[in-house]
Each structure stands twice: as C-alpha cells, then as structure tokens.
Amino acid sequence: MKLLDPTFGTVVGFWTIVVILIAVFLSLRNLDVATNTRMEHDVKTLEENFRENNLSCFILGASGETGKELVKDIVSRKIFSRITLIGRRELKFEDNAHQSLIQKVVDFEKLND
Predict the structure, then answer these.
(1) How many distinct structural domains can be found in the chain?
(2) Cα-atom radius of gyration of the chain, to the nearest Å?
(3) Which GO terms describe its biological process (predicted)?
C-alpha cells in the first residue's frame, strides 16, 4: 500500500477509530465501578435522610405493573413514614407489609365536581 493511496487513509482512519473506541470503553468501565460505588453510598445516605425527616409520599398508578413494583420497592426500603396510594379502586395485597399503606379512591372522571 502506498502512502498516497486512498485506501491507506481509510485503513488508518478505521484503526484509529477502533483504538479510540477501545480506550473510551476501558476508561468508562473503570469509571462505572467508581461511579456505582459512589452512587450506592449516595442512595444509602439519601434513604437515611428520608427516614430521619419523617417524609411521606403518594403514588398514582399503583395498580399497573410499574406501580406495583414501585410500591413493593418503597415498602421494602421503609424510607417513608407514610405512603398514600391514589387510584380508581382500592387494591388488595396478600402480605402484611402493605398494611400501613393509606389508600384513597378517586373518580378521575369527576375531578371538576
């Protein structure tokens, strides 16, 4: 391959990009470990702050798949002193962990009344 051959520039450019992508990938992999460790610490600190401040929350859409998982996660973490579910109907839960939930039934069709 000659230096002035157009395919030479393409090959060099391709391998330059490959090397850069590998370098970026390796640096991000190392960054992820440090970031995840720091984030875990930050989440634990936030959870403790929420517990200490006696905060409450409300959840709309707890009967959907995402809402059910959210309720399960929030109840298991015990970060809120009061959890209120707002929905179209009262939900039934099988375990005792959900007994402390406050449920408010709202007819969303008659909000203006």
Answers:
(1) 2
(2) 26
(3) import into nucleus
